[in-house]
Amino acid sequence: MGTELLAPLDLAFWHLESDAHPMHLGALAVFSPAPGPAHGAGAEAVLELLGTRAAAIPRLRMQVRDVLLPVGGAAWFVDKDFDVHRHIRRVRLTGAESWDEGGGFMAGATRLAGELMERPLERGLPPWQMYVIGGADGGPFAVLVKLHHALADGMRAVAIGAGIFDEIAAAGRARGGAPARRARTVPPRSWMPGPRQVAGLALGRIEDLGRAFGVGASMVRASRLDPRGAPALTASSSGTRRLATADLDLEAVQRIRRAAGGTTNDVLLAIVAGALRRWMRERGEALPDEDPRALVPVSRRRPGQGAATGNRLSAYLLGLPVGEPDPWKRLGRVRTAMDRNKAAGPLRGAGAVAVLADQLPSLAHRFGAPLAGNAARMLFDVLVTSVPLPRSALSLGGCPLRAVYPMAPLARGQSLAVALSTYGGRVRVGLVADGKALPDLERLARCADEEVAELLALLPTH
Question: What's the CATH number for 4-174?
Answer without folding.
Answer: 3.30.559.10
